[in-house]
Amino acid sequence: MNIGVIGSGQVGQTLAKGLAAAGHAVRIGSREGNKLGEFTTQTGIAEAPFVNVARDAEVVNLAVKGTVAESLVRELAPALVGKVVLDTTNPIADGAPKDGILQYFTAANESLLERLQAAAPTTHFVKFFSSVGSGLMVNPKLQGGKPSMFVCGNDAGAKKTASALAAELGWNVEDLGSAAAGHAVEALCQLWCAPGLQKNDWAHAFAVLRP
Ligand SMILES: NC(=O)c1ccc[n+]([C@@H]2O[C@H](COP(=O)([O-])OP(=O)(O)OC[C@H]3O[C@@H](n4cnc5c(N)ncnc54)[C@H](OP(=O)(O)O)[C@@H]3O)[C@@H](O)[C@H]2O)c1
């Protein structure tokens, strides 16, 4: 698959590397398109400005700062028409966590995923890898077996694509339904970060256990 990763931070770099290692043709994007010299040299993954990466990709992974995601999606909307966008962003507000809990800029029953979906209605957004830290995103080795990745979104085909990619990266997939589940999935980032922020414990992932 031809995948464009929009985001040059820890998440963008990790998923770009993981997806390339899984056999996909990957490009990574940043605002200027020329900040990742060492990363591109080491990995062979080319870098370009966000809009070029979005325009040329078949599937896009959105991994930018949550506060800028909606305006960026509006700006990139023409390049995203009809495409699957794997949305890894979380609606983390600027400012300090409260008692070790990240604060969100979204309301309790709304999500960034739904805002992005409304900003680019013809694009198929799926929540993807928002509930684990970048250090454990690719082929995590944890006691107890494979962890669970939670996806949701309005388009069944897009969720199928996201689920196949998550499985390639070493995860079981839990499909939680439409974009209306976005706030429940995004809340898992607050839960995931709490032990880290409170006890510097970042080595964990969620798994759904069944009899
Ligand atoms: N860190 C994690 O472990 C983790 C895990 C799960 C989900 N997430 C979510 O994944 C997303 C990416 O996280 P991250 O830690 O990799 O990096 P980040 O620092 O949250 O985001 C970095 C990206 O945001 C872009 N950006 C920042 N300000 C911008 C602006 N004003 N306009 C346009 N783009 C801007 C940067 O652009 P440039 O490329 O030009 O610098 C860069 O590509 C976040 O939404 C985060 O909540 C993070």
Account of the protein in words:
It contains 7 helices and 8 strands, in the order βαβαβαβαβαββαβα. It has about 210 residues and is an alpha/beta fold. It has a single domain, classed as Rossmann fold. The protein has a 6-stranded parallel sheet with strand order 3-2-1-4-5-6, sandwiched between helices. The longest helix is centred in the C-terminal third of the chain and has 18 residues. The mean pLDDT is about 100. Bound molecules: NADP nicotinamide-adenine-dinucleotide phosphate.
Report the radius of gyration as a whole number of Å.
16 Å
Under CATH at level 1, the class stands as: Alpha Beta
Report the span from N to C terminus.
35 Å
**Total number of strands:** 8
Low-confidence stretches: none
Number of individual domains: 1
Oligomer, anyone? single chain
Sheet with the most strands, sense and barrel status: 6 strands, parallel
Query: Judging from the principal axes of the Cα atoms, what is the shape?
Result: globular
Task: State the helicity in percent bands.
Answer: 25-40%
Structural class: alpha/beta
Can you name the CATH architecture?
3-Layer(aba) Sandwich
What is the helix tally? 7
Ligands in the structure? Answer: NADP nicotinamide-adenine-dinucleotide phosphate
Proportion of residues in extended strands: 15-25%
Helix and strand succession? Answer: EHEHEHEHEHEEHEH
